[in-house]
Amino acid sequence: MRWAFGSPGARLTGDPCGRRAVSASSLHVAIAATLCLGGTSFARAVPSYRDLNHNGRLDPYEDTRRPVEDRLDDLMRRMSVEEKVGTLLHISPPADDRIGLGRKYDLAKLRQTIAEAHVSSLITRLATSPRELAEQNNAVQKLAEASRLGIPMTISTDPRNHFQVVLGASTAGGGFSLWPETLGFAALRDPTLVRRFAGYARREYRAVGIHMALSPQADLATEPRWPRTTATFGSDPRLVSDLVAAYVEGFQGGRGGVTRIGVATVVKHWVGYGAEPDGFDGHNAYGKVARLDNASFASHVAAFNGAFAAHTAGIMPTYPIISGVTIDGRPLEPVGAGFNAQLLGTVLRGTKRFGGFVLSDWAITNDCPERCERPTAATPQGFAIGMPWGVETLSVRQRFAKGLNAGIDQFGGVSDPKPLLEAVRAGEVSMARLDEAVRRVLLLKFQLGLFDNPYVDPAQAARVAGNPAAQAEADRAQRESQVLLENRDGVLPLRAAGTRVWLYKVDPAAARARGFVVVNDPAQAQVAVIRADAPSEMLHPHHFFGSRQNEGRLDFRADDPDFAAILRASAAVPTVVAVNLDRPAILSNVRSRAKALLATFGASDAAVLDVVTGAARPKGRLPFELPLSMEAVRRQDPARPDDTQAPLYKAGYSWTDTHHVGSTGPAGK
């Protein structure tokens, strides 16, 4: 990294990192941090400019005094076609394993990728300490700075501040503050809290060198069996819209769009993703089609209104083919949303007037061979991952051209620029369309301040990520987001001191810390406290994503270990059951056996025990209805929210607030 130091009328050259600096006598900007990337030195300096193209002079795109549009124009003129094409790739970088997991990037391979493919965007899936993550991201920026034009790297991430970790949807926290799932925020219905959460997460992201959140999900949770439900804001399009707006505002640093201290949000998945028949997911070939009609489609679109009002930086199209919908009297083309000009052009750019950038979901241009479509025990899917739904018969080059012409600005999860470069050179993509997409990607880098200083202080990262103030608010949210569904005979709150308790899936140390006496047999206990997960099945064990997702039934059955524990305990003592709802669960046979019943959406054992003992009060209301039976689930419309017949608990219900609008309490009450 080369800096020029100086102020008007002075000539001062030098470099605290021991590298050559360039003098600039007439420039002065605010004091900023200069980092030595070996991790051992940190100096303060007055940088005049960053000589990104290493030519020894200040060029317009390096000049912080110039308007962003002028800087962008200058950079665009300097870029080769190859560099422009590389800008449209958002890679999964090589790391400790082939999909980017681990504690370190493979910097040697990444250096080669940057040099040959000219990429300047990547997703980080590293799970390590905040300090180490900051150091790794600094090392990436150092590689980017060594490129011909020194274009900084935009580093994105899936959500990192929640409990559930599923490859392709969320990432291990690695020292970040730990909050409820977004369903928990939906249970609290508080945009101010969502905005505060996003503000904390924003500071954590920027402290470690992350600039883009591949979140939130504005998807409506309309199909109870859908495995992506846990990261939604529930089933009410108006509530989803309001909470998505608050999320975007908190992350981006304001309602007017992304700021220099912000994190760009990419709201997903445009649009109709939650309407998957049988709850199957579009990552998988068996979930490649979602079915809606025009009325239900309008509700799914309305859930995104808050994202547009808050000027989200980006939108990510959904994977599946959207069927049953007409736009301006014409049926939607039967292709995945990333290839659909009606969804991206007519509705997104036209009706919704979205002017930000569109980032495809991962691997939509890849092939899906036989082992991807129909894997078996003998030939499991493995890493044969591709989601080219509706365009399977096109070549990879044709898919890139179709996606870009439909409205994609950047392609996720691909690192080979050759097919897109060939499409451009063959005239299948115009230079005007290429430049339009490149400008959107680069503009965001300027708005985030990355051209001026993309580096972070690892020591500061360790102080910011997971700081006590943030975690205190996160802990409170874990407690308050719980929903009290039943409290028969006033069993709650429990008196902890000296009470003998039998536990299931609860840390005994957490119970003892509150004064409980933990016993090994329900027959010896005075009360039982059980944590259970919403039921699920592994219906597709040979599919890469299907084997990692909760699919299938929602009802508790006798051979479920969690339900067996409930049966054992409730036969002996009053039983308190807390069910974690990553999807709606059918609680008919649990309700009849539990004296007290709680719904959680990502909460620690300590948070649950605080509610059970009365140290905290649950304030949540159900963010979706809980069906009465699997037959009711099978008969509902996957595209319409909360439409099962005679639900056991309606959306918005809580035991402590049965007068909430739209709530009539459990069936039979």
Automatic annotation (TrEMBL):
Keyword line: Glycosidase, Hydrolase, Signal
Domain called Glycoside hydrolase family 3 C-terminal: residue spans: 520-653
Pfam families, per the entry: Glyco_hydro_3, Glyco_hydro_3_C
Ranges where the Glycoside hydrolase family 3 N-terminal domain occurs: 81-442
Recorded catalytic activity of this chain's protein: Hydrolysis of terminal, non-reducing beta-D-glucosyl residues with release of beta-D-glucose
GO biological process assignments: glucan catabolic process
Keyword Cytoplasm carried by entry: no
EC number: 3.2.1.21
Annotated GO MF terms: beta-glucosidase activity
Gene3D superfamilies cross-referenced by the UniProt entry: Glycoside hydrolase family 3 C-terminal domain (3.40.50.1700), Glycoside hydrolase, family 3, N-terminal domain (3.20.20.300)
Listed PANTHER family: LYSOSOMAL BETA GLUCOSIDASE, PERIPLASMIC BETA-GLUCOSIDASE-RELATED
Family under the similarity heading: Belongs to the glycosyl hydrolase 3 family.
Name of the protein described by the UniProt record: beta-glucosidase
